[in-house]
Specification:
Length: 87
C-alpha cells in the first residue's frame, strides 16, 4: 500500500522516483528490482497504468487504483479509531 500512497491523481512517477520516496520514508535502501516488480503487479491488477517515455516507464494511478487507495486508507483510519477507543 505504501507505494500507492506516493501517487496523486494525475501525477506520474518512474520506478526510480518511487525508490527515492521509499528510501526517504523508510530511511533505508530499497531494491530497484523489488519496486519494479511491485509496480508491474499493480499494473497487472489495473491499479496503475504505465507508459514508456524517453526510454523509461512512467506510472500513473488509475481510477481503480484511486478507489483501492481510498478503500485501504478507510480501513487504516477505522483501525486507528478502534485502537484509540480501546485505550
Amino acid at each position: 500500500m505504501l507505494i500507492l500512497t506516493f501517487f496523486e491523481t494525475g501525477s506520474s512517477l518512474s520506478s526510480h522516483d518511487v525508490v527515492g520516496k521509499l528510501e526517504r520514508e523508510r530511511r533505508s535502501s530499497v531494491s530497484i528490482r523489488a519496486v519494479q516488480m511491485a509496480l508491474m503487479r499493480y499494473c497487472e491488477q489495473g491499479l496503475l497504468h504505465r507508459e514508456r517515455q524517453g526510454g523509461r516507464f512512467l506510472y500513473v494511478l488509475t481510477e481503480k487504483g484511486t478507489r483501492r487507495l481510498l478503500w485501504l486508507k478507510g480501513i487504516v483510519d477505522q483501525r486507528q479509531a478502534q485502537a484509540m477507543r480501546a485505550q
